[in-house]
Write a structure and sequence with these properties.
By secondary structure, the protein is mostly helical. It is 76% helix and 2% strand. It contains 10 helices and 2 strands, in the order ααααββαααααα. Strand 1 and strand 2 form a beta hairpin. Helix 2 packs antiparallel against helix 3 and helix 9 runs antiparallel to helix 10.
């Protein structure tokens, strides 16, 4: 086997710096995705039918089309559709990636949160209703905190999936871990070594996330 990892020693810092871009992308997408997913989950559990229908249709569209297609539409089609003062909207690859993953992950997270809401004892809602607490406050102060605690493992799994799927934004020029490894491979005419190193970085990030989530879950269980 013609393998020589010494050829990429000088490029290891360059590839490793891609962690910052990957984490920036992942954290922003998780934050906005969770916020949007919570809104969608409230839509799906709302007694107001139009909101319920919107949440269901939205989720079916984003869960029923390829993520790579969604990235391409946001990055390449947005400037075509949105024109200001005769100039197309200038959207960076990172902005396009965060927007796409926010919209996509929101659809999946909404289903997780909806399941968590429905898993909360109905007596909780009835007790809040008997106290005259408005619907919005019942959901935000009583139901959602319990739901999030119950679905924490599922949310961590979604975050890990998003972290690994973030490599797809390299296709639109985001200089994340995979993009940098591919650049090194193209320059050195070797691909196995830089891509294997990139895979190691993704693995370490995913395992670190899993360990942190396990610690948080134990703390929440201990707090009752």
């Amino acid at each position: 086997m013609n393998l020589d990892f010494s050829r990429i020693y000088g490029d290891i810092p360059y590839i490793t710096w891609g962690i910052l871009t990957t984490l920036q992308f992942t954290l922003l997408s998780v934050l906005f995705g969770f916020m949007w997913g919570t809104v969608l989950a409230l839509f799906k559990t709302s007694p107001f039918k139009p909101l319920n229908w919107f949440g269901q249709v939205y989720t079916s569209i984003f869960r029923g089309t390829p993520l790579l297609l969604q990235i391409g539409l946001v990055y390449f089609a947005t400037p075509q559709l949105l024109v200001f003062n005769g100039k197309p909207l200038d959207i960076t690859p990172l902005q396009a990636g965060v927007l796409t993953f926010t919209l996509n992950s929101g659809a999946y997270i909404s289903e997780t949160i909806r399941a968590g809401i429905q898993a909360v004892d109905k007596g909780q809602m009835e007790a809040a209703l008997s106290l005259g607490i408005p619907y919005r406050l019942r959901m935000v102060d009583v139901i959602l905190p319990q739901a999030v605690k119950n679905i924490l493992p599922a949310l961590v799994n979604e975050t890990t999936t998003l972290l690994l799927n973030s490599a797809q934004v390299s296709t639109i020029g985001v200089t994340d871990i995979l993009r940098r490894a591919s650049i090194v491979g193209a320059e050195k005419y070797i691909y196995f070594e830089p891509l294997l190193f990139a895979g190691l970085l993704y693995y370490l990030l995913a395992m670190s996330l899993a360990v942190g989530a396990s610690f948080l879950e134990r703390r929440l269980q201990a707090s009752g």
